[in-house]
Every structure is written in structure tokens, then in C-alpha cells.
Amino acid sequence: MKDWKPTASIEAMQVRARLNTLVRRFFLERGVLEVETPILSAAGNTDPNIESFHLDFSGHVSAGAARRWLRTSPEFPLKRLLAAGVGSCYELGKVFRNGEIGRLHNPEFTMLEWYRLGWDHHQLMDECAELVKAALRLVGKSASIRDTSFRQLYLEHLGIDPLTASEAELRAPLAVFDIRAEGLTRDDWLDLLMTHLIQPSIPDNRILLVYDYPKSQAALARIRQGDIPVAERFEVYLGPVELANGYRELSDADEQRERFVRDLSRRKKKGDSIPPIDERLLAALPALPDCSGVAMGLDRLLMMMLDAERIADVIAVPFDRA
Length: 322
What we know:
Blueprint: H1 10-29, E1 33-34, E2 40-41, E3 54-56, E4 67-70, H2 75-83, E5 89-96, E6 108-117, H3 121-137, E7 144-149, H4 150-158, H5 167-171, H6 186-198, E8 206-214, E9 223-224, E10 230-238, E11 241-248, H7 253-270, H8 279-284, E12 291-297, H9 298-306
Parallel strand pairs: 1-5, 7-8
Antiparallel strand pairs: 2-4, 3-4, 5-6, 6-12, 8-10, 9-10, 10-11, 11-12
């Protein structure tokens, strides 16, 4: 057997250690508490675009549900801590997503997730950019920052209003690509426009902050009403690589339950697994303080710091060698 060696260089492992130290110092200086939450949960992620791993507990039934789900993010337990009064906090650790493998994906990867009390999504977006710039300085790099609304980004790059365009108008620029249209939704076409046409045009030395997403892509974000309601959500890109996804957090448990139920309906139609809704999260949401939160993929950040071609180049032992 010849594939026992790590795929990441010693230099990449050293830079990862320095990055972890930087992250902890960054939040220590800002009074943000490091916490730990469970990797296994009785509830799972209902997102139709994310598939969870699960396993079965063989111990006594008094421990609760035997079926447990590996976390795809620490979001739900972190929000329970926020609702209990822990204050601004973060977690740095491993998360797991089934079926995601490729140049930018490993089923087991490192996520940094943090929450800021009393902040809106613009303030948190700016802090994300500060952290990314600090990480780049570790390797002697710099980047410019640009922020733009989701709507303005699509108008500027494609001449399409993503909030009002018909599905046919969204599909038209993608006609040159071999895309199977069956089962794709309007949001899927918006995502494909981003990945196929907009992201490749972002310079490597640019931090792009995109905010105010379509209402249909709110997930766990608040909706801001207006002529066209938008989700108070943002994403962070470093060059063409998506690094982070954040929200001004929803605290309406009834609305969140409705979103979870819609998610599960879509999963059922696709024939995907049906994880249980996190009832403890819903019970905690009414006590959730005004806050914004974000999840950042540190392996992807390392890739951009080191000009790596594959995520395996910055992970010591990737999935296919584990």
C-alpha cells in the first residue's frame, strides 16, 4: 500500500497551526468566548442541499434516540448556548457532510463558526474580512475588499435582476454549459450563475462580501421587508472560492419550524434522508438575543493562503486516505 503518506506538506501543516493560533488570538482580543458543542446529535440538518452522516448508538434506551447525526455545522447547539446567556462565542472544529468530495470538498473538514451579540450582518461581514486579511498576512499576502448586494452583483456581471427575473432569463446565460435541468429550482439556477459565471471572475486578491440574498434563500436568517423582501444573509469570497456564509439570526421559532418543514418536504420529494427537526433549538429560539452568526471553511482559506489546487493539499489525511 503506497497511499499511507499525508497529502499536505509539512509547510501546510505548520501554516494551519499558525492559523489556528491566529484565530484564537483574534477572538481572545475581542472578548469572544471559545466553546465546544456536540459532534453527534439526535437531530440533523434539514437543508435539502446538505446530506448528513448518521450512526446508531447501541447503549441503553435511557440515553435517548439511538440514531445520531454527525454535525454539518455547530450552529444549532451554539444558538442554544447564546439563548442561555453565554454571550458572543465561537467554535473551531470538525464538521461532516456526506457525498461532498472534490477539489474544494472533503466529507470531513474544519469549520470556524462564531456569533456576535447586538451586531447586524454588515458588522459581522466586516469582521470576517478583518480575519481573512489577518490570515493572509501570515503568508505575506494582502487583498482588497469589496462589498455589494446580491442584486447589484448579478446586475453588474450578467445584466440580470436576480430578484425579479424569470426562470427562463436565469437559464439563458447557462445555455453554453452541459447542465441537466430536470428538478432544478429557481434558486438552483441562481446558484449556477454564481458558480459558473460570477465566481470565476473574482480576482484572487479580492475579498468579496455579498449581502441581502433572495428571501427564498434565507435558511436561518431574518427577512427584511420592503418592496422586495430580502434575507439578511451574506457570503464571503476570497477570489473565486466561497469561504463563509452568515446570517442576521432568526429568533421566530414558528417561522423557523415552517422553514424546516418545507426543507423536509423537498428532501422527501428527492428521496433523501429525513433527519429529525431539532426541537431543542426551536425551544431555545424565543430566548435568542439579537445577533448575527457566520460559518467559515478554514481548509478553503488555507488553500487560498498557500495557492493550493486541491483541498487535499492542506489536509494531512483526506477522506480517501483516512
